[in-house]
Specification:
alpha/beta, four-stranded mixed beta sheet, D-Maltodextrin-Binding Protein, domain 2, five-stranded mixed beta sheet, globular, single chain, 2 domains
Length: 445
């Protein structure tokens, strides 16, 4: 699934100290939103309240009217026995554009948003800004019971559950069995990035990654740094004064891997514009060898002809003696603090995130469930023979650094590391300086 074209402007993060500025923005935006606000307030008392759920586009090839989030909204409305009706509004494809639209509406205190499908890297930002209605105390255990640790972690900010885990995600290392056999790789043991790059060069095949200038590139860099035992941001609680820890052994290891792959015969010629769609296409070609990407690709039509030759394992290691840190993704359900029906919105969230609905959504859209029990379901295991690998990876995966400033950090990171062909030993120090300057207001993106 594409998440935006190369060069698309990235939205700036909401700064906790800039609430007055956003309120002024809200006055300007409020005129644009007037129609939707009036619609939310209209309708009289002739029927149950209407809850509006802003959803991200469903990944994969799911029919949005049969199996996607729109279906869950319909089913939960019916199951509420008249307590509420739910409708959906579609957000843009690009993750940063989704965030931007939500921020603009919430900054204007738009009460037409009740529920939102929120990309986890922005959860801390929205919570700090006061955009999220508190999770009721009596529901916190309900929303976390049986949920994989990684999914709970990225719905938590400052030791408090601020959103509801809906679905989680992780990247696996996918490979062509014929290629690893030719290269002599033992995939029952952990493998490193160096090993798979060398194996691809040896076999005249490719290693697919996402290295366009977009959020997917930040996902890769973050996983490399975390896998090297580091973190892009240290003491994130310091906000704008947090230390950017890229000029470190872990940061330099990450740069070395990117430089090695981009400069090798294992790299796609279009690596600098590769998002999920392009990297999957590279893997599906006759010379495809390895790919790091989310599990939805297993059921993608482009892999149908090679499915019997596809194997999978845990994300590659950055360094040989350190466990890898698989990327963590997914979607949280968040309730707007400006919703006129927050209790009903949380009631709807409870229905949407039931184990049965998470199973249905995983089968329809290919998005892994946040609840562990779903992976034991026979239908899920038949559709996803790598179900155990997905579940185990989510439990050990590393989220992007939880900080209210992730949007700024990510945009600056992409700028410094792009294109991958230009990455060298100096890139981590340059990236650390740029991110610091952006956070301190000394540089603009």
């Amino acid at each position: 699934m594409r998440k935006g074209a190369d060069g698309q402007p990235e939205a700036r993060s909401f700064r906790p100290g800039a609430r007055r500025s956003l309120r002024r923005v809200g006055l300007v935006v409020s005129g644009v939103l007037a129609a939707s606000l009036l619609a939310a307030c209209g309708g009289g008392d002739s029927g149950p309240p209407t809850l509006t759920w802003y959803i991200n586009p469903d990944v994969g090839n799911v029919d949005p009217t049969a199996g996607g989030q729109a279906t869950l909204a319909k089913e939960c409305s019916e199951a509420s026995n008249g307590a509420y009706d739910m409708e959906v509004q579609l957000l843009p494809v690009d993750a940063s554009a989704q965030r931007e639209q939500l921020v603009r509406r919430l900054a204007a205190q738009d009460s037409s948003i009740d529920l939102m499908s929120l990309d986890p890297p922005f959860t801390a930002e929205f919570a700090t800004a006061g955009f999220l209605a508190p999770v009721p105390g009596d529901k916190k255990q309900l929303f976390t019971q049986g949920v994989l640790d990684g999914a709970v972690e990225q719905a938590t900010w400052e030791d408090d559950l601020v959103a509801v885990p809906f679905w989680a995600n992780t990247q696996l290392l996918w490979y062509r069995k014929s290629v690893v056999e030719e290269a002599g790789l033992d995939m029952s043991k952990p493998v490193t990035w160096d090993q798979i790059i060398d194996a691809a060069v040896q076999t005249d095949t490719t290693v697919g990654v996402q290295a366009d200038r977009y959020e997917g590139y930040s996902v890769w860099i973050n996983a490399l740094v975390e896998g090297g035992g580091g973190s892009i941001v240290e003491n994130a609680e310091a906000g704008q004064d947090a230390r950017i820890a890229l000029d470190t052994p872990a940061g330099r290891e990450a740069a070395q891997i990117i430089e090695k792959l981009a400069g090798s015969a294992a790299s796609s010629p279009a690596v600098s514009t590769a998002q999920e769609t392009e990297s999957l296409a590279t893997f599906a070609r006759p010379n495809g060898g390895f790919l790091v990407i989310w599990p939805y690709i297993f059921a993608d039509p482009s892999t149908e002809g090679i499915r019997n030759d596809i194997g999978w394992t845990r994300y590659p290691r950055t360094v040989a003696d350190q466990p890898s840190a698989p990327p963590l993704g997914g979607i949280n359900l968040a309730v707007s603090s400006y919703s006129e029906n927050p209790d009903l919105a949380y009631q709807a969230a409870q229905c949407i995130t039931s184990a049965e609905h998470q199973k249905d959504y995983m089968l329809a859209a290919g998005n892994p469930a946040a609840k562990a029990v779903v992976y034991d379901d026979p239908e899920v295991r038949e559709a996803y023979p790598m179900a155990d690998a997905i579940r185990d990876s989510i439990d050990v995966a590393s989220p992007r650094v939880p900080t209210p400033y992730w949007s700024d950090v990510s945009s600056a990171l992409q700028r410094a590391f792009h294109s991958p062909n230009s990455v060298n030993a100096q890139t981590p120090a340059e990236a650390a300086q740029l991110i610091t300057d952006v956070l301190q207001g000394r540089a603009l993106l």
